Predict the 3D structure of the following.
Amino acid sequence: MVSPQQAILVLGRFERLLLAMAAKPRRSAEPPPLLIELLEPRGADGPAYEAYPFAYFVQSSRGRPMYSIAHSISDQEVAALRGVVSRTSEGLDPADVIPLTFVRLIGVLSQAAATSLGGFMSGGHTKALAELCAYEAVGLSRILALAKDEHVTEFYTDSDASPLYLDHSVSGRLETSISLTERERAALQTHSDTFSGYSLDFRNPSIKNDFDVSGAKLRVSIDLEPISVNRFALDVRRLNLTSMSLDRLVEMGAIGADSAAILVAWLEAGGNVTIIGETGTGKTTLLNALDEMVNPRLRRVYIEDAVETRDLLALGYHQLKLKVDPFDRSGARERTKELEIVKVLHRSPDIVVLSEIQSEEHSRAFFHSLSAGARGMQTFHATTVEQALRRWTTAHHVSQESLLDLGLLVQMSRPDRLGSRRMVHRICQLVQQQGTLRVRDAFVRDREGSLRKISEVSVPDLGIESAWSRFQDRAREVERSLVPARPLAQ
């Protein structure tokens, strides 16, 4: 039963959705074309991989790697789907979409579309086509196509007239000929605005929001005028990338079995690991792989502005996940990352897992928690360990004494910025020698590309000899469990 207050709230927010969904031009009584009709029908030739009703191609055009999408729907089915989408949009009742969430909206539309499809669709594809109709109704069917390709890790457009380009987990940076229509841009803005709790306007021309699109968790970032010189910019990042286990990373040559084992044993012994690297170097991939390998009985507390860590509850892991505001907004200070970091010890964590440490406020709270005994994993954006240390001490005003609490520092790299390979370049720790802070390498990648051990890690916090022996035993146990490093052919 819907209360009057709920109805007023939902109708107010729903009005924008209905206006956006009704914005399709109606020049005749015939249902309008579908957005997927902008894609080519699937032909018989050419290498492709599929996620029905879409097929994906990576080919070369004029020496440039190109990505394209086709659909596998017949002309007869397309004509039928036009009518289904039209009836589904017109029949939507706001009272059916309470609570008003994006997932709920898509679910209601999919159910209505499935009913309308009836039994005329063959081949057992009714569910997939009903989902397609729901995304057509909200103007995001081509976003659905990109979301269903698990190899697409991130896609971008730099203006309202530029085609999309993307990062592919196998092929690296790819170009496309896909340009978003005015309706698609408006739909992205409307849904980001409606479901984020914040409004896009001249004073707030940037917005971030997370969407679950056919099981893919997408972080959508939009910039409009006046901050976007070319009127519209979009960055959509897949947050739930297909998880890579630690042994898979070892097999790929991204990290060695011995160095991976040291990181796991270090975390289980109560040490801290900071993963440093530029955007797209695999920081979160390594963090998730380590998280999955560390003893599941340890209580983990996560503080993230975008949920990029794996949900391991069903596997018996102890996980408390907290999501904070991705923007530092006035009037919304009760859910900031820095406040939750400061409060984290009240939640009795064995391991604290943070998303990226970005601002001076984040750093201040982070080093405060380290000094109070909180340990775990976090990421930090910098090209090298030395650059990260300079940023902390110079830009974020962190004392050199506080830096000693960082534990092990892992430097990630991406040898080819347009390629797909990511790897651990270096593992080191900070030590104090004659009153001077120095970086001591434990593992470094040599010119042949192998991650080689340079020195033993120093574990002063373990204290007694028996604890050091347990650390070494656990490292050896983990190393034996990992697949021996067999770098893939380059």
Summary: The CA atoms of residues 192 and 209 lie 6 Å apart. The longest strand covers residues 423-433. The chain has 14 helices and 19 strands.
